[in-house]
Design brief:
InterPro entries: HAUS2, HAUS2_metazoa
Keywords: Coiled coil
Largest sheet: none
Helix content: over 70%
Protein name: HAUS2 protein
Radius of gyration: 41 Å
Structural class: mainly alpha
Shape: elongated
Length: about 160
């Protein structure tokens, strides 16, 4: 199943990049000695050693990838129930309650985070509330004055009609 779902993984992308770099370096290394000296073979030996070193590094990288792949396959084949800790029957009720509380907490987590984020804004919000309270008090005083004027006008109207 793993082989069928396998896509081109980034680890092999690095391998192809390294291979391209080695090829380009090899081409450069082949042309350079010819230009510098057509009669000496020492640079060629040096570049073969360098190429061999790069191939050994790539080989180590591929071995590590294969080892990880084998470990992953082993873990996928292995049953999960063998890795879990057994819970005594007396604690089952506690675990169920704990899970319910965890679900509730996760459900309310966003609102809790929003509350925590709003803490730095509290002084500004308090100033706004103080300003609003002052405005409300002024409006209440004006409303009381207006009410008194309406009552006086109503009494005057009663006196005029009587």
């Amino acid at each position: 199943t793993l082989d069928l779902t396998c896509r081109r993984t980034p680890c092999f992308a690095k391998f192809s990049e390294m291979e391209e770099m080695v090829n380009m370096e090899a081409e450069i290394d082949e042309v350079q000695p010819l230009l510098l000296s057509a009669y000496t073979l020492i640079p060629g030996v040096y570049f073969i050693g360098k190429k061999c070193e790069i191939l050994q590094d790539m080989n180590k990288h591929l071995e590590a990838i294969l080892k990880e792949k084998r470990d992953l396959r082993k873990r996928l084949i292995k049953h999960r129930c063998q890795e879990s800790l057994p819970i005594e029957a007396t604690f089952h009720r506690c675990i169920v309650e704990l899970l319910a509380e965890a679900v509730t907490f996760i459900g309310k987590l966003e609102s809790h985070l929003q509350s925590v984020r709003s803490i730095p804004q509290i002084p500004h919000m308090m100033n706004n509330m103080d300003t609003t309270l002052s405005k409300t008090e002024v409006l209440m005083i004006e409303l009381e004055e207006l009410t008194e004027q309406i009552l006086k006008w109503e009494e005057l109207q009663k006196e005029v009609y009587s």
